[in-house]
């Protein structure tokens, strides 16, 4: 799927921004006219034009707020949030770039203004975690115990973005929903400077502890969904945290080792990859040629707090479900996008390794759902996801 851009990464990130339109996160014309102003493959141009659009919509939201126009304010704050998030996306090559914190801060602030005006309850929460806290949003329809979906993102998402990625759909179907950020994500990496960790059960278990202490949560019907890199993180957590009623890997990911990525792209002698200096130069050359590789390495070094490409490769070595996947006990849904340009083949590897009750769900180009994490078809994805989850939760209650 190509939209406006020939560059795959730019096209995909535009599709991602557009995908939130059904849940109030985008207006199609705003996104397209912004994209047409952007210079292909230029990170600064991307930032400048999305920031320009975000500022315009944010200004309208502020005017709505002053005039007491609460619904218009909510709608404009939600879209401004998404556009600021999109603007900030490619800025991670320099963690000291002041634009990153300023733009991300505006994205979060706009979202928090929006949730003050929602038709349901949204509570900003701080989940105790290893002497600090994990930030989250607890969305609920009322105070009664209901099935609850926990959602975390992956390599680059924010907790606020997860409202569009699953929380809104959960509420529509009678679920409470907690979205949260862990190490390497959102505010946890930007403000607390805590990088990713492979043993994600150490992250999810405190979240489960927190949620089971809430009277609004049915303790028997607590599910976990991880998105993108979360397709590794959530199964990793479920392998050791057995109080979960279900696990969703969207899309499924068996391993996320940057060294393996280098091997796939390398066309020279295999022994050359044993030379640290050679690997550094090789990856740098790929970054010069590929927007996707450049972004992945820059964001990886930022979120894993890696001092070099070699350090990033070393830090991601433990990210595999080899010998772990079979420890999962709860029903698990593994999703695959037919044309996923990030994790091709990985969902099937995860599915085959599972010994628990399991479901494999393929999303195809015929359904317009072939892109990574089904961007471009989130309504369809959520329909199929919750049809599966409803069945699992019904069995739990029997």
Notable traits:
Alpha/beta hydrolase; FrsA-like; eight-stranded mixed sheet; alpha/beta; 398 residues; FrsA_esterase; 15% strand; 8 strands; 48% helix; 3 domains; hydrolase activity; de novo design (two linked rop proteins); Rossmann fold; globular; AB_hydrolase_fold
Please provide a written account of the structure.
Keywords: Hydrolase. This protein has helices spanning 8-18, 28-36, 43-66, 70-88, 98-115, 162-172, 186-190, 201-212, 230-240, 258-265, 276-289, 291-303, 309-315, 346-353, 378-397, and strands spanning 121-129, 132-140, 146-152, 176-180, 217-227, 246-250, 332-337, 358-363. It has 15 helices and eight strands. Strand 5 (217-227), helix 9 and strand 6 (246-250) form a beta-alpha-beta unit. It folds into three domains: 1-119, de novo design (two linked rop proteins), CATH 1.20.1440; 120-256 and 319-398, Rossmann fold; 258-315, no CATH class. With 398 residues, it is of the alpha/beta class. The protein starts with 7 loop residues before the first helix and ends with a helix.
CATH topology of the largest domain: Rossmann fold
Largest beta-sheet characterization: 8 strands, mixed
**Secondary-structure class:** alpha/beta
Major beta sheet, strand line-up: 1-2-4-3-5-6-7-8
So, the CATH homologous superfamily of the largest domain?
Answer: Alpha/Beta hydrolase fold, catalytic domain
**Total discrete domains:** 3
Give the N-to-C terminal Cα separation.
43 Å
Number of strands: 8
What is the CATH architecture assignment of the largest domain? 3-Layer(aba) Sandwich
Shape: globular
Question: Helix count?
Answer: 15
Determine and state the CATH class of the largest domain.
Answer: Alpha Beta
What portion of the residues fall into strands of 2 or more residues? Answer: 5-15%
The run of helices and strands is HHHHHEEEHEHHEHEHHHHEHEH
> What is the arithmetic mean of pLDDT?
95
Low-confidence stretches: none
Helix content: 40-55%
GO molecular function: hydrolase activity
Protein name: Alpha/beta hydrolase
Organism: Brevibacillus choshinensis
Keywords: Hydrolase
């Amino acid at each position: 799927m190509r939209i406006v851009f020939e560059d795959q990464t730019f096209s995909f990130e535009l599709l991602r921004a557009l995908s939130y339109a059904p849940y109030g996160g985008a207006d199609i014309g705003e996104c397209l006219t912004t994209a047409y102003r952007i210079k292909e493959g230029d990170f600064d141009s991307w930032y400048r034009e999305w920031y320009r659009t975000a500022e315009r919509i944010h200004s309208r939201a502020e005017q709505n707020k002053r005039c007491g126009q609460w619904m218009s304010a909510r709608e404009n704050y939600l879209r401004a949030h998404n556009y600021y998030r999109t603007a900030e996306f490619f800025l991670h090559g320099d963690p000291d770039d002041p634009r990153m914190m300023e733009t991300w801060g505006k994205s979060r602030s706009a979202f928090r203004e929006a949730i003050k005006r929602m038709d349901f309850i949204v509570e900003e929460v701080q989940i105790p975690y290893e002497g600090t806290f994990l930030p989250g949003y607890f969305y609920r329809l009322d105070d009664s115990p209901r099935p609850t979906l926990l959602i975390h993102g992956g390599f680059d998402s924010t907790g606020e973005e997860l409202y569009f990625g699953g929380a809104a759909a959960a509420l529509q179907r009678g679920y409470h929903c907690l979205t949260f950020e862990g190490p390497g994500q959102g505010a946890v990496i930007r403000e607390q400077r805590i990088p990713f960790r492979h043993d994600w059960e150490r992250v999810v278990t405190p979240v489960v502890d927190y949620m089971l202490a809430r009277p609004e949560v049915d303790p028997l019907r607590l599910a976990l969904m991880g998105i993108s890199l979360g397709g590794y993180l959530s199964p990793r957590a479920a392998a050791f945290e057995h109080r979960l009623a279900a696990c969703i890997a969207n899309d499924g990911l068996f391993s996320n080792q940057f060294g393996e990525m280098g091997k796939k792209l390398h066309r020279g002698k295999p022994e050359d990859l044993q030379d640290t200096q050679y690997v550094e130069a090789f990856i740098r050359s790929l970054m010069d040629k590929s927007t996707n590789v450049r972004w992945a390495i820059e964001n990886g070094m930022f979120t894993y707090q890696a001092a070099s490409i070699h350090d990033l490769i070393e830090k991601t070595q433990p990210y595999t479900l080899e010998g772990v996947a079979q420890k999962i006990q709860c029903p698990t849904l593994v999703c695959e996008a037919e044309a996923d340009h990030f994790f091709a083949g990985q969902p099937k590897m995860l599915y085959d390794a599972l010994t628990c009750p399991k479901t494999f769900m393929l999303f195809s180009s015929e359904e317009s759902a072939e892109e990574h994490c089904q961007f471009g078809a989130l309504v369809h994805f959520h329909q199929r996801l919750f049809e599966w989850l409803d069945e699992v939760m019904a069995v739990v209650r029997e």
